[in-house]
Design brief:
Layout lengths: L5 H12 L5 E4 L5 H9 L2 E4 L11 E4 L4 H10 L5 E4 L13 H10 L3 E4 L5 H13 L2 H5 L2 E5 L16 E4 L5
Parallel strand pairs: 1-2, 3-4, 4-5, 6-7
Helix pairs in contact: 1-2
């Protein structure tokens, strides 16, 4: 997995529930994210995906950052699959060489797919997986709860954030 936000952590949970060797790459060096990955029995790596000490067969890209997706495509094993699950709001430009990437993907027998939709059976599988998970672990995915009147702090990411929830009260 790339990214230890809520999607990356839940993906790691699913990988571990299925008995897969699971590695999560993120930029945070300490705190809740590495701790939660470790509690799953997965491996946590802080730093760029290019420095991952393994060559993965499957990568779930959960950051939505183009440069991370490109790094993951380069790092994965021949015959590997990269699944893109996020979309960045950034307008950052990155220098790419489409011909080189095309050649590396084809000769490496690699596949890149995007995913955004799910069928009913996927929701049922998710409900089953969540019911098997440690409720305390799941609760720690939400790191802050704020009220709408908290002002700009609602939108400002804090170093330990995983998922921030804005709690709306009934009218």
């Amino acid at each position: 997995m790339t990214g230890a936000g809520p999607i990356g952590l839940l993906a790691a949970l699913l990988g571990r529930q299925r008995g897969l060797e699971t590695h999560v790459v993120d930029v945070v060096t300490d705190g809740a994210k590495p701790r939660m990955v470790g509690e799953l029995g997965a491996h946590y790596h802080a730093g760029p995906v290019s420095e991952l000490p393994v060559v993965p067969d499957i990568v779930l890209e959960c950051t939505g950052l183009g440069e991370v997706a490109i790094g993951a495509a380069r790092r994965m094993a021949p015959g590997g699959v990269l699944a893109l699950t996020g979309i960045s709001q950034s307008g950052r430009a990155a220098e790419t060489h489409p011909d080189e990437m095309n050649k590396a993907l084809v000769l490496g027998n690699k596949a890149i797919v995007g995913s955004v939709n799910a069928a009913r059976r996927h929701y049922e599988q998710a409900a089953t997986a969540l019911s098997l998970a440690d409720p305390d672990w799941l609760a720690r995915l939400v790191t802050r709860r704020l009220r709408p009147d908290a002002g700009p702090s609602v939108l400002q990411k804090q170093p330990g954030d995983i998922k921030v929830v804005v709690e709306m009260s009934p009218a």
